[in-house]
Amino acid sequence: MALSYDSLNENVKKCQYAVRGELYLRASELQKEGKKIIFTNVGNPHALGQKPLTFPRQVVALCQAPFLLDDPNVGMLFPADAIARAKHYLSLTSGGLGAYSDSRGLPGVRKEVAEFIERRDGYPSDPELIFLTDGASKGVMQILNCVIRGDGDGILVPVPQYPLYSATISLLGGSLVPYYLDESENWGLDVDNLRQSVAQARSQGITVKAMVIINPGNPTGQCLSEANLREILKFCYNEKLVLLGDEVYQQNIYQDERPFISSKKVLMDMGSPFSKEVQLVSFHTVSKGYWGECGQRGGYFEMTNIPPRVVEEIYKVASIALSPNVSAQIFMGLMVSPPKPGDISYDQFARESKGILESLRRRARIMTDGFNSCKNVVCNFTEGAMYSFPQIRLPPGAIQAAKQAGKVPDVFYCLKLLEATGISTVPGSGFGQKEGVFHLRTTILPAEEEMPEIMDSFKKFNDEFMTQYDNNFGYSRM
Amino acid sequence: MALSYDSLNENVKKCQYAVRGELYLRASELQKEGKKIIFTNVGNPHALGQKPLTFPRQVVALCQAPFLLDDPNVGMLFPADAIARAKHYLSLTSGGLGAYSDSRGLPGVRKEVAEFIERRDGYPSDPELIFLTDGASKGVMQILNCVIRGDGDGILVPVPQYPLYSATISLLGGSLVPYYLDESENWGLDVDNLRQSVAQARSQGITVKAMVIINPGNPTGQCLSEANLREILKFCYNEKLVLLGDEVYQQNIYQDERPFISSKKVLMDMGSPFSKEVQLVSFHTVSKGYWGECGQRGGYFEMTNIPPRVVEEIYKVASIALSPNVSAQIFMGLMVSPPKPGDISYDQFARESKGILESLRRRARIMTDGFNSCKNVVCNFTEGAMYSFPQIRLPPGAIQAAKQAGKVPDVFYCLKLLEATGISTVPGSGFGQKEGVFHLRTTILPAEEEMPEIMDSFKKFNDEFMTQYDNNFGYSRM
């Protein structure tokens, strides 16, 4: 048989993507059997009840149904600024949402993205170096595909990491070079640690070509400081690495000490020679922030200091799949140029987005506190992004029981949690963690009013689990 | 520099995608300079003025703006059946269009696709073996990624072919094994020719693993007969090849002698052992047909006789990019279950779709006749799909001039055509052709009323070109 398991591309078999792995598949089965599942395996806000922002949906609905713009009754269902914006975006297309755009995305939307970046960072941005993508993941895959030539090429990836990176590197046949984030330092990034990782990879004959940072962190939730970003960029300069800045959670910040600062801004602030030489590709999306428009599949990447000939090659490869979907390109345009004060829809838009962000901030707190109220659980505060990544201290009895069940201990724990409570998480082993230490990742996205009950249900399960597998647990709690 | 042209993945550099290649780039430049360009380089109907079908756009607009469903005025802008369908599709999602779906697509839409296939072929279809994709191209790339392990793995591809195949095979580091379609037999497929191609590849140590057919043909426009499909399937059975059936133009048929018949139906008709053993993956899309919803990026593939463990691996890889965009999944649902007689929107839908198909049929005729009215041009009739692929007989003077300009002769011709007329085509060399024979591909999509003028403009250019480069041309015409 041509397409048998044995004859499959080995890189396909090797790659692992735990976010939709064993736990997700079991949760889907249980859901089919009628059990109520709380899907916190993936940052998918609308699936957990978050309502879409009204204004962008009005605009895209009108773009999908342009004939409504000629209907005298259109004003009964749509505000005038949504109508105007729909006309604006349609004018940027060459045939509406049904026509392929340029493979880099609509020039007019890329211009709006560049203007957004300029406002955000205070430095110029060139639309020709911005490509729109079907979600940020597709952009990351495109760039890694250009970088990786084979298993002699290494990519520095944080551990714990979002498994898009490990899976894509496996799929492309490259080598993942891990650098460890320090849990005891609130998942901080230590540049000495980076140096060791690179030295070790080189001693194994690997050419380290790129470094990934996820800021704010996924699954770890930390926000990188400006000083830390400078160190990283200097490191990339010295080591001649292209920095891939996964900044998809830049709107999701839940503390005031370290606001989001983009890698691009820090790089430009550093001035010559860094600002002229360090290669940077940064990624953004409509899936996260207070938008959460995951199902639309919209994203972009911006390239800095990438030579024109390489940009052309990236364009060529993008063109094989013709174009990113056009309605998500319009969502991207709207995300980077939302209603302004004075616009008809401004108040509603501001109220909706503020409501979502403030609730996420409260949920981050409820969840961290809930985890930390369990004596065998330690959890850093979610400074940003959408995840909580508690460490679960498992007793030898549980590790033994997992072994007997043929499971990794944290997978064993998460499966039991799922069966008992319907909470669908991802075991820490799917993201990478230090030997003998166990975590799980959950999103902070369940509805705020359901959060206390979910945390109670978690605590009840955890205590029972511990009582079952740790002879000393019940006693020492008193 | 980490990301320099020299250090790029060689497979990226090697791949070529002429549909958005030199001609397209030059056309885009000319457009920027203010020249009127007729983009016939890619099958992109809405870009050339085709209007979207009203009913599906109404349904998707409502799905994008679900709050309209609670508005008492919704009935003033939307018919009741569109409202009902929007509610139906929203009920199939888990959080509307903003939530990621399962990575294979929404189960409810996959069920509708399976029902469509059952009605079309008269054989059962299993939704679990249907994956929705961001356009058919992405599906083809996913499958080839699983099949190709390295340059020792060969894929049989028709020549001329749609360059998605050659580009993807290059990108994945595989080997393209060409088989030639016979222009003098209306681009027929000769199985003896296939056998020779496979034998030759094997003598070079290549393991031939898969065969691609494009039916109706792109760029060649031919429709495969049932007898021909049986031969192909038998050949795949004997040679243990997985057949990739690119059937994206199945609704685009412009003659009555050979209606579209799916590879799946022919395979099932053949019975055991073929129907139980031949591996088949067939592809479809919302981009073509009379829909032409290219910019939405929606497609599916159906797998037949692919082992469950392989299906799981394909699912795993699909999950890395989380999910295809959800609004295009709904377009796919609508395409496979359009309004029925008796529905409020049926008459309009039927009128619109019939209008498009009948006009395409007339345009196919106008274009073929137009090309054949030039004495140095020979063109098979476009039986199906959306393209005309005339052979242009270039005189030695033109070939010499092209050489001096450093261009392939058909590229030279197409560039001159573009500069003179604004007609943006793709040179035959982008699809593959026999040595010393030259073609171009154009779509049959320009508006019907503009077609005579476009063909006149082509003829005028061609005659002038020939007069310039062929000393005998003017005389022999008299």
UniProtKB/TrEMBL annotation, chains A, B:
Q: Name one GO molecular function term.
A: L-alanine:2-oxoglutarate aminotransferase activity
- What are the residue boundaries of the Aminotransferase class I/classII large domain, all occurrences included? 81-456
InterPro entries for the chain? ALAT1/2-like, Aminotransferase_I/II_large, PyrdxlP-dep_Trfase, PyrdxlP-dep_Trfase_major, PyrdxlP-dep_Trfase_small
- What Pfam family is a match for this entry? Aminotran_1_2
Do you know which CDD domains this protein is assigned to? AAT_like
Requisite cofactors = pyridoxal 5'-phosphate
Coarse class of the protein's main subcellular location:
other
- Which Gene Ontology cellular-component terms appear in the entry? peroxisome
- Note whether Secreted occurs among the keywords: no
Its recorded reaction(s) are: glycine + 2-oxoglutarate = glyoxylate + L-glutamate; glyoxylate + L-alanine = glycine + pyruvate
Keywords assigned by UniProt, alphabetized: Aminotransferase, Peroxisome, Pyridoxal phosphate, Transferase
Question: Is Transferase a UniProt keyword of this protein?
Answer: yes
Q: Where in the cell is it found?
A: Peroxisome
Q: In which pathway does it act?
A: Photosynthesis; C4 acid pathway; Amino-acid degradation; L-alanine degradation via transaminase pathway; pyruvate from L-alanine: step 1/1
Q: How does it assemble?
A: Homodimer.
To which protein family does this belong?
Belongs to the class-I pyridoxal-phosphate-dependent aminotransferase family. Alanine aminotransferase subfamily.
The name of this protein is Glutamate--glyoxylate aminotransferase 1
Q: Which organism is it from?
A: Cardamine amara subsp. amara
